[in-house]
Design brief:
With 57 residues, the chain is α+β, with helices and mostly antiparallel strands. The chain is built from two helices and two strands. It has one domain. Strands 1-2 form a two-stranded antiparallel sheet. The radius of gyration is 14 Å and the shape is flat. The relative contact order is 0.18. The chain binds zinc ion (ZN).
Length: 57
């Protein structure tokens, strides 16, 4: 199990380009996934979105 404290330490180095946050999302009972939430203006996120679109073509 990852403790809340460990999440805090992880979250401090998530993204070099923005103040990304780590959120836990419960997708079903007893199944929780961690998602990195980037700022809307994050250049890294913009790059990822571009790459995803190109791959879907
Ligand atoms: Zn970011």
């Amino acid at each position: 199990m990852i403790t809340r404290d460990a999440f805090g330490r992880l979250a401090s180095g998530l993204c070099p380009d923005c103040d990304a946050e780590l959120r836990t999302v419960e997708i079903s009972p007893r199944v929780t996934v961690a998602q990195i939430m980037h700022d809307d203006t994050c250049p890294w996120l913009a790059h990822q979105n571009r790459t995803t679109k190109e791959n879907n073509r």
